[in-house]
Design goal:
single chain, mainly alpha, Ferritin, 7 helices, 0% strand, Ferritin-like
Length: 188
């Protein structure tokens, strides 16, 4: 009887996840639903959530970096965009590999919220783009540093904790560069 109830519960979760996927095409939400079905009430539930958010954030920063390389007016902003593409693409590859070994689902594309931010920045013209992009990078990297520091202390998974800890200096460098560029843009 217990086995029957367990099988029924797992089947119900799978059906619910399938229904959610059919109703919701947001890549972030799809990955979140898969992780929730796998890790709900387990010791790595929070680690899976962090990995998903870190992957989507890194993906967005790389995509925005590509946009900055093409759209920015100032050389410093273009260079910063190139750094974002390189660093966050490499970081995301590492995270994808780590997540794969833990059966953690990551989004295949930007979720709706991140896509809206991308579209918003893409609609900006010339100098307005440069200022808005750098301002967003400052805000975003401050949030990232906080999340990575928390993960480096709270993670149940040693490899994910070490990975997050190793990325903090890179994120701090990005923040310092964005703040430096922001000062340059304000002085012009």
């Amino acid at each position: 009887m217990k086995k029957f109830i367990t099988i029924y519960f797992i089947l119900a979760l799978c059906i619910a996840a399938c229904e959610n996927r059919q109703q919701n095409n947001d890549p972030k939400d799809l990955a979140e639903d898969q992780n929730e079905a796998r890790f709900n009430n387990t010791k790595i539930e929070d680690d899976a959530e962090f990995a998903l958010k870190a992957a989507e954030g890194g993906m967005m920063e790389a995509e925005l970096g590509r946009l900055a390389q093409n759209k920015a007016v100032h050389r410093e902003v273009k260079s910063f965009g190139a750094m974002m593409v390189g660093d966050h693409s490499d970081t995301n590859k590492e995270l994808e590999s780590l997540a794969q070994t833990r059966n953690i689902s990551l989004p295949a594309a930007l979720g709706e919220d991140k896509q809206k931010k991308y579209d918003e920045l893409n609609s900006k013209k010339a100098n307005e783009f440069d200022r808005e992009y750098i301002s967003f990078m400052i805000k975003d990297h401050k949030e990232d540093i906080e999340a990575f520091r928390e993960q480096s202390k709270e993670s149940k998974d040693a490899e994910l904790r070490n990975w997050a800890t190793s990325k903090i200096p890179i994120l701090e460098h990005h923040l310092a560069e964005a703040q430096r560029i922001d000062s340059l843009l304000r002085s012009r």
